[in-house]
Protein backbone atom coordinates (compact mmCIF):
# COMPACT_ATOMS: atom_id res chain seq x y z
CA UNK A 1 0.00 0.00 0.00
CA UNK A 2 2.79 2.42 0.92
CA UNK A 3 4.63 1.55 -2.29
CA UNK A 4 1.52 2.27 -4.37
CA UNK A 5 1.13 5.65 -2.67
CA UNK A 6 4.74 6.60 -3.37
CA UNK A 7 4.42 5.57 -7.03
CA UNK A 8 1.26 7.66 -7.39
CA UNK A 9 2.98 10.78 -6.16
CA UNK A 10 4.80 13.13 -8.52
CA UNK A 11 8.19 14.50 -7.54
CA UNK A 12 6.65 17.75 -6.25
CA UNK A 13 4.26 15.93 -3.90
CA UNK A 14 6.93 13.49 -2.77
CA UNK A 15 9.15 16.40 -1.71
CA UNK A 16 6.42 18.04 0.35
CA UNK A 17 5.24 14.78 1.87
CA UNK A 18 8.74 13.84 3.03
CA UNK A 19 9.82 17.34 4.09
CA UNK A 20 9.81 16.41 7.83
CA UNK A 21 12.58 13.90 7.03
CA UNK A 22 14.99 15.94 4.93
CA UNK A 23 14.31 19.59 5.83
CA UNK A 24 14.44 21.74 8.95
CA UNK A 25 12.36 24.85 9.70
CA UNK A 26 13.96 28.27 9.21
CA UNK A 27 15.44 30.10 12.16
CA UNK A 28 12.52 31.79 13.97
CA UNK A 29 12.10 35.52 13.59
CA UNK A 30 12.62 37.89 16.49
CA UNK A 31 9.01 39.10 16.70
CA UNK A 32 8.29 42.66 17.82
CA UNK A 33 4.80 43.07 19.31
CA UNK A 34 2.68 45.55 17.39
CA UNK A 35 0.80 48.18 19.41
CA UNK A 36 -1.81 50.41 17.81
CA UNK A 37 -4.94 52.37 18.62
CA UNK A 38 -6.17 55.54 16.90
CA UNK A 39 -6.77 57.31 20.22
CA UNK A 40 -3.16 56.90 21.43
CA UNK A 41 -0.69 59.67 20.42
CA UNK A 42 1.96 58.51 17.98
CA UNK A 43 4.74 59.45 20.41
CA UNK A 44 3.36 56.96 22.93
CA UNK A 45 3.08 54.28 20.25
CA UNK A 46 6.75 54.82 19.39
CA UNK A 47 7.66 54.32 23.05
CA UNK A 48 5.54 51.17 23.34
CA UNK A 49 7.62 49.64 20.53
CA UNK A 50 10.90 50.64 22.20
CA UNK A 51 11.49 53.33 19.56
CA UNK A 52 11.41 57.12 19.80
CA UNK A 53 9.50 59.82 17.92
CA UNK A 54 11.29 61.57 15.09
CA UNK A 55 12.27 65.17 15.66
CA UNK A 56 9.66 67.67 14.53
CA UNK A 57 11.88 69.17 11.84
CA UNK A 58 13.00 65.81 10.42
CA UNK A 59 11.58 64.63 7.12
CA UNK A 60 11.31 61.09 5.82
CA UNK A 61 9.94 59.93 2.50
CA UNK A 62 8.29 56.59 1.82
CA UNK A 63 8.57 54.78 -1.52
CA UNK A 64 6.23 51.88 -2.28
CA UNK A 65 7.85 49.69 -4.94
CA UNK A 66 5.95 46.81 -6.57
CA UNK A 67 5.71 44.62 -9.65
CA UNK A 68 2.42 44.93 -11.55
CA UNK A 69 1.00 42.37 -13.93
CA UNK A 70 -2.81 42.24 -14.11
CA UNK A 71 -3.84 42.98 -10.49
CA UNK A 72 -5.97 46.03 -11.35
CA UNK A 73 -8.20 45.69 -8.29
CA UNK A 74 -5.36 45.11 -5.85
CA UNK A 75 -3.46 48.12 -7.18
CA UNK A 76 -6.52 50.35 -6.85
CA UNK A 77 -7.05 49.18 -3.25
CA UNK A 78 -3.34 49.67 -2.54
CA UNK A 79 -3.28 53.26 -3.78
CA UNK A 80 -6.22 54.23 -1.59
CA UNK A 81 -4.95 52.41 1.51
CA UNK A 82 -1.44 53.89 1.38
CA UNK A 83 -2.04 57.26 -0.29
CA UNK A 84 -1.68 59.38 2.83
CA UNK A 85 1.55 57.69 4.01
CA UNK A 86 3.47 57.07 0.74
CA UNK A 87 5.29 59.76 -1.25
CA UNK A 88 5.95 57.82 -4.48
CA UNK A 89 4.47 54.62 -5.89
CA UNK A 90 7.09 52.86 -8.04
CA UNK A 91 5.52 50.37 -10.48
CA UNK A 92 7.24 48.12 -13.00
CA UNK A 93 5.39 45.97 -15.53
CA UNK A 94 6.73 43.44 -18.03
CA UNK A 95 5.71 42.58 -21.57
CA UNK A 96 5.88 38.88 -20.68
CA UNK A 97 5.14 36.59 -17.76
CA UNK A 98 8.07 35.29 -15.74
CA UNK A 99 7.93 32.13 -17.86
CA UNK A 100 8.37 34.24 -20.99
CA UNK A 101 4.83 34.12 -22.39
CA UNK A 102 3.80 37.38 -24.12
CA UNK A 103 1.10 39.33 -22.30
CA UNK A 104 -0.57 42.70 -22.80
CA UNK A 105 0.89 45.72 -21.01
CA UNK A 106 -2.02 47.10 -19.01
CA UNK A 107 -0.97 49.97 -16.80
CA UNK A 108 -0.50 52.75 -19.43
CA UNK A 109 -4.18 52.34 -20.28
CA UNK A 110 -5.32 51.99 -16.68
CA UNK A 111 -3.67 55.19 -15.51
CA UNK A 112 -5.90 57.17 -17.88
CA UNK A 113 -9.20 56.04 -16.36
CA UNK A 114 -10.83 57.62 -13.32
CA UNK A 115 -9.92 54.75 -10.96
CA UNK A 116 -6.21 55.58 -11.33
CA UNK A 117 -5.79 59.01 -12.96
CA UNK A 118 -6.41 60.75 -9.61
CA UNK A 119 -3.11 59.25 -8.34
CA UNK A 120 -0.93 60.46 -11.22
CA UNK A 121 1.06 62.92 -9.11
CA UNK A 122 2.67 60.12 -7.08
CA UNK A 123 3.10 57.46 -9.78
CA UNK A 124 6.41 56.42 -11.36
CA UNK A 125 6.11 53.65 -13.95
CA UNK A 126 8.41 51.68 -16.21
CA UNK A 127 7.75 48.94 -18.76
CA UNK A 128 10.34 46.15 -18.79
CA UNK A 129 11.19 43.74 -21.60
CA UNK A 130 11.74 40.17 -20.43
CA UNK A 131 13.26 37.24 -22.28
CA UNK A 132 11.20 34.50 -23.88
CA UNK A 133 12.26 30.81 -23.91
CA UNK A 134 13.53 31.23 -27.48
CA UNK A 135 15.76 34.12 -26.43
CA UNK A 136 17.19 32.25 -23.45
CA UNK A 137 18.71 29.20 -25.07
CA UNK A 138 20.13 26.41 -22.92
CA UNK A 139 18.17 27.73 -19.94
CA UNK A 140 15.42 25.68 -18.36
CA UNK A 141 11.96 27.21 -18.11
CA UNK A 142 12.19 27.15 -14.31
CA UNK A 143 15.54 28.96 -14.39
CA UNK A 144 14.18 31.48 -16.90
CA UNK A 145 11.23 32.26 -14.61
CA UNK A 146 13.50 33.04 -11.68
CA UNK A 147 15.83 35.08 -13.90
CA UNK A 148 12.95 37.17 -15.22
CA UNK A 149 11.61 37.76 -11.73
CA UNK A 150 15.06 38.87 -10.57
CA UNK A 151 15.28 41.25 -13.54
CA UNK A 152 12.04 42.91 -12.48
CA UNK A 153 13.33 43.44 -8.95
CA UNK A 154 16.59 44.86 -10.31
CA UNK A 155 14.54 47.36 -12.30
CA UNK A 156 12.88 48.48 -9.07
CA UNK A 157 16.31 49.04 -7.53
CA UNK A 158 17.37 51.07 -10.56
CA UNK A 159 14.21 53.19 -10.57
CA UNK A 160 14.51 53.96 -6.88
CA UNK A 161 18.18 54.94 -6.98
CA UNK A 162 17.78 57.06 -10.11
CA UNK A 163 14.74 58.94 -8.82
CA UNK A 164 15.98 60.55 -5.67
CA UNK A 165 16.15 57.79 -3.06
CA UNK A 166 18.43 59.13 -0.36
CA UNK A 167 19.70 58.23 3.09
CA UNK A 168 16.89 58.06 5.63
CA UNK A 169 14.15 57.29 3.10
CA UNK A 170 11.96 54.21 3.61
CA UNK A 171 11.22 51.60 0.94
CA UNK A 172 8.29 49.18 1.16
CA UNK A 173 9.42 45.92 -0.47
CA UNK A 174 6.37 43.80 -1.23
CA UNK A 175 4.37 42.12 -3.97
CA UNK A 176 1.11 43.61 -5.20
CA UNK A 177 -0.96 41.18 -3.13
CA UNK A 178 0.88 42.12 0.09
CA UNK A 179 -0.53 45.32 1.54
CA UNK A 180 0.75 46.90 4.77
CA UNK A 181 -1.79 48.63 6.98
CA UNK A 182 -1.81 52.39 6.49
CA UNK A 183 -1.21 52.82 10.22
CA UNK A 184 1.79 50.47 10.06
CA UNK A 185 3.53 52.76 7.57
CA UNK A 186 2.43 55.84 9.53
CA UNK A 187 4.17 54.34 12.56
CA UNK A 188 7.47 53.91 10.68
CA UNK A 189 7.21 57.46 9.34
CA UNK A 190 6.70 58.89 12.81
CA UNK A 191 9.27 56.85 14.74
CA UNK A 192 12.96 55.98 14.58
CA UNK A 193 15.19 53.46 16.32
CA UNK A 194 13.98 50.30 14.60
CA UNK A 195 16.23 47.98 12.54
CA UNK A 196 17.31 49.23 9.11
CA UNK A 197 15.44 46.32 7.55
CA UNK A 198 12.34 45.05 9.29
CA UNK A 199 9.97 42.43 7.94
CA UNK A 200 6.22 42.86 8.27
CA UNK A 201 4.03 39.95 9.27
CA UNK A 202 0.93 39.76 7.08
CA UNK A 203 -2.48 38.31 7.81
CA UNK A 204 -2.71 35.75 5.02
CA UNK A 205 -5.86 35.08 2.98
CA UNK A 206 -6.64 33.01 -0.10
CA UNK A 207 -9.02 34.13 -2.92
CA UNK A 208 -10.82 36.67 -0.68
CA UNK A 209 -10.97 37.91 2.90
CA UNK A 210 -13.36 35.05 3.67
CA UNK A 211 -10.57 32.44 3.75
CA UNK A 212 -7.76 33.13 6.24
CA UNK A 213 -4.80 30.78 6.07
CA UNK A 214 -3.73 28.73 9.07
CA UNK A 215 -0.49 29.22 10.97
CA UNK A 216 1.77 32.27 11.34
CA UNK A 217 1.40 35.08 8.85
CA UNK A 218 3.64 35.52 5.84
CA UNK A 219 6.64 37.81 6.43
CA UNK A 220 8.38 38.36 3.07
CA UNK A 221 7.25 41.99 2.98
CA UNK A 222 9.75 44.37 4.54
CA UNK A 223 10.45 48.05 5.08
CA UNK A 224 14.00 49.20 4.45
CA UNK A 225 15.71 52.36 5.71
CA UNK A 226 18.21 53.55 3.11
CA UNK A 227 21.64 54.39 4.51
CA UNK A 228 24.64 56.13 2.98
CA UNK A 229 27.01 53.72 1.21
CA UNK A 230 25.05 50.58 2.05
CA UNK A 231 24.91 47.87 -0.61
CA UNK A 232 21.13 47.69 -0.60
CA UNK A 233 19.15 46.25 -3.48
CA UNK A 234 15.42 45.58 -3.71
CA UNK A 235 14.62 42.13 -2.33
CA UNK A 236 11.56 40.06 -1.58
CA UNK A 237 13.44 37.47 0.46
CA UNK A 238 14.27 37.21 4.14
CA UNK A 239 17.09 39.63 4.82
CA UNK A 240 16.63 40.21 8.55
CA UNK A 241 15.66 38.34 11.70
CA UNK A 242 13.34 41.15 12.82
CA UNK A 243 9.61 41.18 12.10
CA UNK A 244 6.78 43.44 13.26
CA UNK A 245 3.74 41.36 14.14
CA UNK A 246 0.33 41.76 12.47
CA UNK A 247 1.29 44.58 10.10
CA UNK A 248 -0.83 44.08 6.97
CA UNK A 249 -2.72 41.77 4.64
CA UNK A 250 -1.55 39.19 2.09
CA UNK A 251 -4.47 38.25 -0.17
CA UNK A 252 -3.14 35.54 -2.50
CA UNK A 253 -4.92 34.78 -5.79
CA UNK A 254 -7.51 37.47 -4.98
CA UNK A 255 -8.59 37.98 -8.59
CA UNK A 256 -11.88 38.96 -10.17
CA UNK A 257 -11.64 36.77 -13.30
CA UNK A 258 -10.95 33.04 -13.75
CA UNK A 259 -8.58 33.81 -16.61
CA UNK A 260 -6.36 35.76 -14.19
CA UNK A 261 -6.03 32.63 -12.05
CA UNK A 262 -4.82 30.64 -15.06
CA UNK A 263 -2.44 33.38 -16.14
CA UNK A 264 -0.76 33.45 -12.76
CA UNK A 265 -0.71 29.67 -12.39
CA UNK A 266 1.16 29.29 -15.68
CA UNK A 267 3.15 32.51 -15.70
CA UNK A 268 4.80 32.97 -12.32
CA UNK A 269 7.92 31.40 -10.85
CA UNK A 270 6.08 28.43 -9.33
CA UNK A 271 4.42 27.37 -12.58
CA UNK A 272 5.69 23.83 -12.00
CA UNK A 273 3.00 23.38 -9.36
CA UNK A 274 0.53 22.80 -12.20
CA UNK A 275 1.00 19.03 -12.41
CA UNK A 276 -2.41 18.19 -13.92
CA UNK A 277 -4.26 19.83 -16.82
CA UNK A 278 -7.54 19.74 -14.88
CA UNK A 279 -6.14 22.37 -12.49
CA UNK A 280 -6.64 24.91 -15.30
CA UNK A 281 -10.29 24.10 -16.02
CA UNK A 282 -12.86 26.80 -15.17
CA UNK A 283 -15.01 24.35 -13.22
CA UNK A 284 -12.07 23.05 -11.18
CA UNK A 285 -10.75 26.53 -10.36
CA UNK A 286 -14.22 27.79 -9.44
CA UNK A 287 -14.92 24.86 -7.11
CA UNK A 288 -11.63 25.33 -5.31
CA UNK A 289 -12.19 29.08 -4.89
CA UNK A 290 -15.61 28.59 -3.28
CA UNK A 291 -14.31 25.82 -1.02
CA UNK A 292 -11.13 27.68 -0.07
CA UNK A 293 -9.02 24.74 -1.26
CA UNK A 294 -5.50 24.91 -2.71
CA UNK A 295 -5.49 25.44 -6.50
CA UNK A 296 -2.61 23.01 -6.98
CA UNK A 297 -3.82 20.28 -4.59
CA UNK A 298 -0.52 20.52 -2.72
CA UNK A 299 0.56 19.15 0.62
CA UNK A 300 1.23 21.93 3.18
CA UNK A 301 4.79 23.14 3.69
CA UNK A 302 5.35 21.94 7.26
CA UNK A 303 8.20 20.29 9.12
CA UNK A 304 6.50 17.61 11.26
CA UNK A 305 4.26 14.72 10.23
CA UNK A 306 1.78 15.77 12.90
CA UNK A 307 1.32 19.18 11.28
CA UNK A 308 1.18 17.55 7.86
CA UNK A 309 -1.71 15.30 8.82
CA UNK A 310 -3.52 18.05 10.74
CA UNK A 311 -3.36 20.69 8.03
CA UNK A 312 -3.89 18.53 4.95
CA UNK A 313 -7.14 16.97 6.13
CA UNK A 314 -8.50 20.02 7.91
CA UNK A 315 -11.28 21.88 6.12
CA UNK A 316 -10.20 25.44 5.20
CA UNK A 317 -11.57 27.85 7.81
CA UNK A 318 -13.96 30.65 6.89
CA UNK A 319 -13.92 34.01 8.61
CA UNK A 320 -17.02 35.77 9.88
CA UNK A 321 -15.11 38.90 10.90
CA UNK A 322 -14.46 41.69 8.42
CA UNK A 323 -13.98 44.54 10.88
CA UNK A 324 -10.44 45.27 9.72
CA UNK A 325 -9.96 44.89 5.99
CA UNK A 326 -8.91 47.64 3.55
CA UNK A 327 -11.32 50.57 3.89
CA UNK A 328 -11.66 51.04 0.12
CA UNK A 329 -13.16 47.55 -0.19
CA UNK A 330 -15.91 48.29 2.33
CA UNK A 331 -16.57 51.70 0.80
CA UNK A 332 -17.10 49.94 -2.55
CA UNK A 333 -18.49 46.66 -1.30
CA UNK A 334 -20.68 45.96 -4.32
CA UNK A 335 -17.83 46.39 -6.79
CA UNK A 336 -15.46 44.30 -4.65
CA UNK A 337 -18.04 41.67 -3.70
CA UNK A 338 -15.66 38.92 -4.92
CA UNK A 339 -13.39 39.72 -1.96
CA UNK A 340 -16.20 39.44 0.61
CA UNK A 341 -18.32 36.55 1.95
CA UNK A 342 -20.79 35.10 -0.54
CA UNK A 343 -18.88 36.49 -3.53
CA UNK A 344 -16.81 33.47 -4.54
CA UNK A 345 -18.37 33.03 -8.01
CA UNK A 346 -16.03 34.55 -10.57
Provide a descriptive summary of the structure in words.
The protein has 346 residues and is an alpha/beta fold. It is built from 13 helices and eleven strands. The strands form two sheets. Strands 1, 3, 4, 5, 6, 7, 9, 10 and 11 form a nine-stranded mixed sheet that branches. The N terminus is likely disordered.
Low-confidence blocks of residues: 1-8
Number of strands: 11
User: What's the rounded overall pLDDT mean?
Assistant: 93
Tell me the overall shape. globular
Strand content: 15-25%
Largest sheet: 9 strands, mixed
**Head-to-tail CA distance between termini:** 40 Å
Q: Helical content, roughly?
A: 25-40%
How would you classify the quaternary structure?
A: single chain
Q: By helix and strand content, what is the structural category?
A: alpha/beta
Q: What radius of gyration results from the CA coordinates?
A: 21 Å
Give me the number of helical elements.
Answer: 13
Order of helices and strands: HHHEHEEHEHHEHEEHEEEEHHHH
Architecture blueprint of SSEs:
Blueprint: H1 2-8, H2 11-17, H3 19-22, E1 30-32, H4 42-48, E2 52-53, E3 62-68, H5 72-82, E4 88-94, H6 107-110, H7 114-117, E5 123-128, H8 141-162, E6 170-173, E7 178-180, H9 182-190, E8 191-192, E9 197-206, E10 222-225, E11 242-252, H10 258-267, H11 282-291, H12 305-312, H13 327-331
Parallel strand pairs: 1-11, 3-4, 3-6, 4-5, 9-11
Antiparallel strand pairs: 2-8, 6-10, 7-11, 9-10
Task: Quickly list its features.
alpha/beta; about 350 residues; about 15% strand; two-stranded antiparallel ribbon; 13 helices
Compact description:
The chain is α/β, with parallel strands linked by helices. It has helices at residues 2-8, 11-17, 19-22, 42-48, 72-82, 107-110, 114-117, 141-162, 182-190, 258-267, 282-291, 305-312, 327-331, and strands spanning 30-32, 52-53, 62-68, 88-94, 123-128, 170-173, 178-180, 191-192, 197-206, 222-225, 242-252.
Amino acid sequence: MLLMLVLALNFRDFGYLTRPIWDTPPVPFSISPHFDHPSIPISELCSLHGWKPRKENSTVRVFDATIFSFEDDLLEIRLHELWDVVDRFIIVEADKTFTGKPKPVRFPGLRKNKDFSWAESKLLYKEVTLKSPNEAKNVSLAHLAWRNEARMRKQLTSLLTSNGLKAGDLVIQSDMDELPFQRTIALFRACEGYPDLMHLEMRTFMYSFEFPRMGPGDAKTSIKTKRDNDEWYYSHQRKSDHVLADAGWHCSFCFRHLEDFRTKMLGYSHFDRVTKSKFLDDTEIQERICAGKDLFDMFPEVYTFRDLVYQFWRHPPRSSSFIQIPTWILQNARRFAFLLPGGCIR
